[in-house]
TrEMBL record:
This is Exocyst complex component Sec8. It holds the Pfam family Sec8_N. Belongs to the SEC8 family. One of its GO terms (cellular component) is exocyst. Residues 273-323 form the Exocyst complex component Sec8 middle helical bundle domain. Transmembrane segments: none annotated. The gene is Exoc4. Component of the exocyst complex involved in the docking of exocytic vesicles with fusion sites on the plasma membrane. Residues 329-338 have a biased composition (Polar residues).
Amino acid sequence: KMAAGEAAGRYRSTMSKSKDPSGLLISVIRTLSTSDDVEDRETEKGRLEEAYEKCDRDLDELIVQHYTELTTAIRTYQSITERITNSRNKIKQVKENLLSCKMLLHCKRDELRKLWIEGIEHKHVLNLLDEIENIKQVPQKLEQCMASKHYLNATDMLVSAVDSLEGPLLQVEGLSDLRLELHSKKMNMHLVLIDELHRHLYIKSTNRVGQRNKEKGRISSLVKDASPVPLMDVTNLSTPRKFLETSQFSTPGSSSMRETSLLEIKEDMELDPEENSTVFMGILIKGLAKLKKIPETVKAIQDRLEQELKQIVKRSTTQVADNGYQRGENLSQENQPR
């Protein structure tokens, strides 16, 4: 009995000192294990039951006193629990949607890449079609340029068209006839340019001298000047040699020299291409360079040099004889046998 009393005292002291339910439970277990008497155990059991009943009564009283607050707390807790549950479900759904979007974006990325590549291909095809359409008009434009003697523009057009037909458009079977036609024209284009170059080099220049001498003779006959007129005044004549020298040895401060540089020569489609013979010969040389026919041009000039010089002498002799005869006729008509 003394042991049971001591255990009960320890139990009460434990209840009064500690509010931890685990400590209370350990104390009760220790008390029941140390007591050997059944009566003490029953007493301890009764004391526990009494304590539980008291707790229930106190809890009921507290519930009655704080019913409104408890109800509000329970409802608030239920609402919070529902919100947390809904949020978890929504987050789960969002994760699933994100995974689905990720898969769809991968698919869309492949589709967009495919469409981008198709767009590039279509753009390339459209550029080729535009180029084919422009090349089909080359023969007609080339004929017009050749007729108006705009040879540099014609050469650029022809070289560009042949490069396209033998390059990017080589596999287009429908352009085979046009390819052969333009290639043939390109092979023979330099012959036309060389003929024009010789015409200006030997014939047009000497014609200007003869025309100038005729004008001087006409003026001298009007003023009845008996002094002889120089037949070949070529000091101010612009020749290809002078053109070459000015283009090579021009100084940076000389604007007139720079304007005659072969590299800066451009063809004006609105003006007569033969108005300035020097510029026209520069255009012809530039066209021959684009055709890569400069060696053939030099060879042709060397081969025809003697023949052309003989023709110049022959034409000059004829002009001098004609001028002298006309001069004698005029003097005889004026009764001046001298």
